[in-house]
Amino acid sequence: MTVSVSADAILARQRARESSARTYARSFPIVPARAYGMTVEGADGRRYLDCLSGAGTLALGHNHPVVQEAVRRTLDSGAPLHALDLATPEKDDFTDALFATLPKAFADRARVHFCGPAGTDAVEAALKLMQTATGRRGLLAFTGAYHGMTAGALGVTGAVAVKEPVAGGGAEVTRLPYPYAYRCPFGVGGARGAELSVTYTQRLLDDPAGGVVRPAAMIVEAVQGEGGAVPAPDDWLRAMRRITREREIPLIVDEVQTGVGRTGAFWAVEHSGIVPDAMVMSKAIGGSLPLAVIVYDKDYDGWLPGAHTGTFRGNTLAMAAGAATLRYVAREGLTERAAAVGARMLARLAGLRAELPVPVVGDVRGRGLMIGVEMVDPAGPVDSCGARPAAPELARRVRDACLARGLIVELGGRYGATVRLLPPLVITDEEAEAVLERLGEAISEVGKEAGVEAGAGVSAGGAVVAAAVVAAPAAAAPVPAQAPVRAQTAAGVAPGPEGARH
Hints:
By secondary structure, this protein is of the alpha/beta class. Helices cover 37% and strands 13% of the residues. A seven-stranded mixed sheet has the order 4-12-11-10-7-5-6. A hairpin with a 4-residue loop joins strand 13 and strand 14. Helix 13 packs antiparallel against helix 16. It is globular. It starts with 6 loop residues before the first helix and ends in a 32-residue tail after the last helix.
């Protein structure tokens, strides 16, 4: 039965009834009614290309046939949909599928704990696990980090705006500098900035007057997601692994957003080759349904029964959908495709940045299909790293201009000034072209409206921008043929994260 709905009426009721903490609903005044692949169709019939993908959750896009078949098969089987933490065939199969994707050196010693359905609960579990195992309380975390919104996860999150109103939001956490070349915390940028981060971390931990009691764990993202798609250099991550191992500090890697092929490796730690003591996983592992786990070295498995529990740890549908997703990503080579398409998109966006008559794009960065475009004030002063001041208002206007063109993108990074792209791994070549074209048009339009573009290069409606988007640099990575999927049809902000992504 088709139900006629008024999008305006639904949005009005949402504003009246839901909490003021809602986030995406503020950014996107649309009412999704149907979705397939990368396409979202609103209740008004308008279609959008979704470059948010459930904040990175939808590795296979919306309603992929593999996921739908797994859900239907499970429903038809009569399997219990709720089973606490009891063993079920679905859980056993999911665990097999998950362990098959892990680096062998990690999988051979691994234990898994099923948490509440959100990534933030898995972060809580990982922190509690290491505090229990070591008998210590303090934690090491990084500038720009995002790990969730519950108490412990909020403590290790970097954004000040969401921590200030919460008593104890930063308790017992030592903040370390994350290497961010464009806005280097040491003001030098590049490889030198990462080297200084390593030196600073070592000396702080070894300084008897440094004020840091030996901590229970270090937690880090191999690519900061909500922090603005900032990749950690592989050498730096290897150094963090060495530092923590030498000092007997457990290393937790948060793979909530980077996992399941997103960065061009199945797990982001594979780029550096490190073996952490624990990995936090959620989002894509559930195949679009709620699921979160931690996987950790068996030497840390010192919990008493019930030490970290929760009613909704046995989501049978999510385990079935997740197992199907993990196997499909591996079988169809979607990790390699994410690497190739991401490299192509980064190269094209770097070309766009270089061709803009006025420097409103300060930095283009990312890894795989986890991409950030940082908007800056072209009239602002240039710092010692060559960075201009962040321009969150320009970024918001780019997001709105993209939505008007049927493209959904979201913001992140410092002051919310980075336009973030998280397309599904099944993005087609045609969809990638459409994303680049619409984003390029949006940046051009916003620049002109703001009065920052000038000169003949843009007098003909942004011809320079259009040329940059359409003409791929010769060095761009080749894109392999799209893996077989169902046909897809080609929509006052607080500084820091715009909402709870975990």
